[in-house]
Input
Amino acid sequence: MDLKRGLARVIENQSPFGLLILVAMALLPVISDNIFYIEIVKLAAIYAIFAMSWDILTGYTHEVNFGVAFFIGGAGYFSGILNSFFSFSPYLAVPLAALAAGILGIWIGYLTLRLRGPYFAMATLAFASILFKLSFIFYEFTGGEEGISGLEPFTDDPMRDFYVAWVVMVVVYFILCIYARSKHGIILKAIRADEDATQSAGINTAYYKIEAFAISGLLAGIGGGVFAHSQMHIGPTMLSGYLSVIVVLLAMIGGMGTIVGPLVGAICLSILNESLRMVEEYRIMIYTGLLILLIYLAPDGLINLRSIKNSRILSFVFLGDRKST
Amino acid sequence: MEILIIGSVRGALYSLIAVGFVLVFSVGGILNLAHGTYYMLGAYLTYIFYSLVFGSGGVNSLILSAMLSVISVGIIACLVYNILLRPHIQSITYVMVMTLAIALFVSEIMSLLFGISGTSVPSLIEGSISIGGVKVINQQLILIPITGLILPALWFFLKKTKTGQGIDAVAQQRTGAILMGVSVEAATFITSGVSASLAALAGALIAPVSNVVPEMWLFPLIKAFAIAILGGIGSLVGSIIASFVVGYAEVLSSFLISEQLTELVALVVIVLVLLFKPSGIMGYKLG
Output
């Protein structure tokens, strides 16, 4: 009975649009067995994991984390090393690596989350750059510029690999939705509104921020591990500032602080990015240019546009809000 | 001796970059993550003007192209501020994400135009001299007198001219400055231009002795930030002292431990300062 009520609470207030996208992605391999499209959607799913896990800290507290690549690449490398040097199975290596990322998240969060605003942002960027540099210095383990190749994939079949990524994405999505609706998520929102006031209400804001940071690191680490094993390769690009910024942009354009926003934003924009491969030479330039334009036009994200928030039907479809008025 | 000279050269270079970064942060509240990009653009535009526009003339055309690149970077920075940043200047998140996105965009354009392997620019003055048995490239040495001229000039501009006093006032007390009739927007506008020009000058001067590559924006940015927090955000004197501290520390670590670790020094400085003395050497307590 409890289980049933719990399930009902999860489904309740879900964004129908978000659910629709999740289902549509799962149905894609049924419609088309073109391996190229499946790879694209798998990549989109992994980017969605990154963007959603970034959102739980930054979207809810507005402490900008520019170091997602720290967790993504760190966990990717860790799981890659476990797999290729100690021949751990990916099913064991990825959770271990993600756990390590989560614990590191607690430590770094403890160090840096006393800082606010720009200081925190730059400190996370610095941590990610340290790891990026270290990956070149310890090239015996990390392979330097080339990274580690030949990682063991989850399954032999790309189709099933896709479903692994999809399942992870769905699980991450629901975990984050539940977390965001729990007491913890509400406290994070309160911190966003006014940290001092929240503190004076007797809430240990640092604890909740560190918790959110660690969860964000853990989930991004899972995403990084899945990425490494499904590509069978991990390289320094997974640690670079470029990846961090792209994840931040995807989540911001989708709409921060909604979980479904980053999901939608990451999936749509990554698919767009891949379709730009027709003009490969200019791809990244067009893509980043487009992202700048989007963020300029809709700084709060597409899903938080005023026209969506003000309309009852649209806000139900996209955000899952049932307005009482 | 070697450490002293090379450290001073680095310190001079970093102070040119960091002063602008600190200035624009204290005046506009803008954490300008595109600051390293302005440094990079200074180097690239010098190259563009010199070899593509003037077709590799003599030293005069090199000086001219360096000056043109400094001015055009200043203009670019003003445009970026006015068009892209000003509409949402209150949101720190927006400003940071936007400037970082610009940095990526520009570095992508540059790698598209000139390739990732990089280009180089001929030296302003050739050759090298030896001081106390240490061989120093002239082009690097020239950084010290130029910084020695620029920084007092900046100080004079901020303290003695009307515009500069306005900028200084905004940095010290924003509300008070508004009440005194200082236009905050104009002050921020000018500061963006000036700080970007300083970074571009550093880039143009260092272009001949370093490889001009599209990734050269990231580490100056991180160093500028390290210096800014070491010196205490909002303190120009602090940032100049901190530039030299970081410069010497880097050279020392590369002599004592390993060449590879120099890039890490700035990062370690950030972490240590944030942990033990978040207000920096000359700064106020953080809010």
About this structure: Chain A has a mean pLDDT of 82. The interface with chain B takes residues 58, 62, 64, 66, 111-112, 114-119, 121-123, 125-127, 129-130, 133, 136-137, 241-242, 245, 248-249, 252, 256, 281-282, 284-285, 288-289, 291-292, 295-296, 299 of chain A (CB under 8 Å). The CA atoms of residues 246 and 288 of chain A lie 8 Å apart.
